[in-house]
Input
Amino acid sequence: MQPLTAARAGLISCHVCHALARRPAARDAALHCPRCGARIHQRIPGSLGETWAYLLAAVVLYIPANAYPIMSVVWLGRGEPATIFEGVIQLIEEGMWPLALIVFIASIFIPLLKMIVLAFLLISVQRRSRWRMVDRTRLYRMTEFVGRWSMVDIFVIGILAALVQFGSLASIEPGIGSLSFAAVVVLTMFAAHRFDPRLIWDACND
Amino acid sequence: MTISCNPKLIACHDCDLLQSLPDGEQRRGKACCARCGAVLHRYSRDSIDRSLALALTGLVLFLVSNLLPFLALNAQGRIQDSSLLSSSLILWQEGNTFLGMLVFATTFLFPLSSLLAILYLLLPLRLGQRPRFSIHVFRYLQSTEPWGMLEIFMLATLVAVVKLGDIATVIAGPAMYAFALLILVLAALSASLDPQLIWRRLDPRCNH
Output
């Protein structure tokens, strides 16, 4: 027996307020939530295409985010630019292990993991896979929850730039890498937002 | 329309399974989806009163954190002050408009507007009224929720302080303590806020 979903019961659940509405007979009629007025759809329209678009844009920008310096410490007029990875190495060399671990997890591990997981979810949905659907939904919730924490490095750069302003003596300047990195974080957040996890479960109805 | 007006009936937002929520009034904890485990509903006692108190506290702490000095750096006698907003201002001034705007939005604009939105909604609801544009305000509040990143900024502050600790003396300003409290208050606020309860109160189909 197939489980009773809102879709099979002829109902649509609002993305915003989770109210249930009856699906109209005409297929493409624009429908608004009876409670909060938001446009409602059975599934996010164009979910897979839009998620892919944001994801691919993030993957492309991930290259300059890692290849270019994320921040330079200008000391007596001489700049010392460092990429994300070099920054982690520097912290390890200075013996700041806990910091190195935080920066590694937030700036390298989470963005990479998030992009891989989203690509995996998209491909498995497109192949209508029924493999471990509970775990794949959990994976989605995890990536959605954890993605924002990659902003840590951007904030660190902002705080350091605001504090270390000693004219020609010392200053801290964000590099091109930080701009691309921030864009990667924002784009992957959009990607996760556009992905509709209910598509994972639609494979049950085949 | 009996099915769609039943407030106990809900479709899981992650897997679309239809299920009915257990009776909410005396319950604590959360209700999870029977199929995928998503959190369908968090029960909270005196949700509106508590959230209102926490949002007011949060607003005061937010103002204090932004108006007083946040961090200061003492490098060989020269002292550099900074406030919460100065990181986004500096990024902006140095030509990083995108980064400046992003930091401004995530650490000032969204947190402040969501605190104000909660107060705007809950104060009249507490008094039994429905404020104007309440549905639009609550939709805005729900959709901008992931973009308030104060707790991440707190972690970034700790990282920056430890990083600078080697070369200079970092002095925590009064705003820093208010900010740390603000993070706790905001966490408690998001735990006590019950969106389903508020949506039910705002529902134009029902007359409260």
User: Anything to note?
Assistant: Chain B has eight helices and seven strands. Chain B has a mean pLDDT of 88. Residues 46-202 of chain B form one domain. Chain B touches chain A through 64 residues (CB under 8 Å).
